[in-house]
Specification:
CATH superfamily of the largest domain in chain A: Cytochrome C biogenesis protein
Order of helices and strands of chain B: HEEEHHEHEHEEH
Distance between the termini of chain B: 74 Å
Number of strands of chain B: 7
Largest interface: A-B, 24 and 26 residues
Helix content of chain B: 25-40%
Number of strands of chain A: 0
Strand content of chain A: under 5%
Oligomer: heterodimer
CATH topology of the largest domain in chain A: Helicase, Ruva Protein, domain 3
Largest sheet of chain B: 5 strands, mixed
Helix content of chain A: 55-70%
CATH class of the largest domain in chain A: Mainly Alpha
CATH architecture of the largest domain in chain A: Orthogonal Bundle
CATH superfamily of chain B: Glutaredoxin
Strand content of chain B: 15-25%
Shape of chain B: elongated
Number of helices of chain B: 6
CATH architecture of chain B: 3-Layer(aba) Sandwich
Order of helices and strands of chain A: HHHHHH
Number of helices of chain A: 6
Radius of gyration of chain B: 23 Å
Largest sheet of chain A: none
Distance between the termini of chain A: 75 Å
Chain lengths: ~140, ~180
């Protein structure tokens, strides 16, 4: 029984949060009034990486820093900036790391080229095999 | 059908190379620190309200008076920020001007934090929506930036300043002067 209680107590404890207790930025969770602008902002948020969690986009993260980034995105969209401009602003500050959308660049092209190359080689090997078998 | 030996072993060899890559990556996990891409660039324009009553707030205009200084990103709720307090005090004692950006913090919390761990800051700006933090490409707490006299970011220190980092930061400040 005591063991069960101990396990229960462990399961119920909240991890010590290294998070602030401040309210989120105004536009962290509030949508823009204009649905077209909100859709633009949402699409952009899905292509930006949460810097604290790193495996999530800022659209999916509840980290307060991701909220602050969403606030930047929404207020900048509302001010008339284009999604490309805002993406550029983020990349200027955090490098390619902040991009959560695969992009072709001088360093990333092998990621796209190698699978195609392997597929091509595999195709050639298979073709030669079949040609030999028939012949 | 004649098979030459090496083509037979080729898939296994490729697989071994793949396993090798996996092993290396497992042994050396991806870097979790995100470096700022703003080194060598000008600070963005900002004006932050004072975070405490006994220090002025912080604006870009305060950071281009010809004097290099440290800009420390911190918060009272950040445990490593308390760890680096003695090192910030040491830097201040050795003549370094340190300005603070207090991220997402309550006035009473930061006042208690500074009362407990000391206040090495000449100015402290209150950054409630991480505006300055995002503006300079900082991704965590604490981080310390060297700002030269013209308001250009010249160096970023990620994580708490440990005793062995004090000389390095002094060196970076001297470089920013030159």
């Amino acid at each position: 029984m005591r063991v069960l209680l101990a396990i229960l107590a462990l399961a119920l404890t909240a991890p010590l949060a290294a998070q602030d207790s401040m309210p989120p930025a105004p536009y962290a969770y509030r949508q823009l009034d204009d649905p077209a602008q909100e859709a633009e902002a949402k699409a952009l948020m899905e292509t930006l990486r949460c810097l604290k969690c790193q495996g999530q986009s800022i659209a999916d993260s509840d980290a307060s820093m991701a909220g602050d980034m969403r606030h930047q995105v929404r207020t900048r969209i509302a001010d008339g900036e284009s999604p490309a401009q805002i993406r550029g602003w983020m990349i200027e500050r955090y490098g390619d790391y902040v991009s959560y959308k695969p992009e072709l660049s001088a360093t990333t092209w092998p990621l796209f080229a190698v699978p195609l190359l392997l597929l091509l080689v595999a195709g050639l090997v298979v073709r030669r095999r079949f040609a030999r078998r028939q012949g | 059908m004649r098979r030459s030996a090496w083509t037979l072993w080729l898939p296994l060899a490729l697989f071994a190379v793949f396993i090798g890559f996996v092993a290396v990556q497992l042994a050396d996990p991806a870097q979790t620190e995100v470096e700022s891409a703003m080194i060598g660039k000008k600070l963005p324009e900002f004006v932050l309200e004072p975070a405490v009553s006994d220090r002025p707030g912080l604006a870009t205009a305060d950071l281009r008076d010809g004097k290099p200084r440290l800009m420390n990103i911190f918060a009272s709720w950040c445990a490593p920020c308390a760890v680096e307090a003695p090192q910030l005090a040491e830097l201040q004692r050795r003549g370094v001007e340190i300005v603070g950006v207090d991220v997402r913090d309550r006035p009473e919390d930061v006042a208690a934090f500074l009362a407990r761990y000391g206040n090495p800051f000449a100015r402290i700006g209150k950054d409630d929506i991480s505006e300055v933090q995002l503006g300079i490409g900082s991704a965590g707490y604490p981080e310390t930036f060297v700002i030269d006299g013209s308001g250009t970011i010249t160096y970023q220190h990620i994580g708490e300043i440990r005793p062995e980092h004090v000389e390095l930061l002094l060196e970076k400040l001297r470089e920013a002067e030159g």
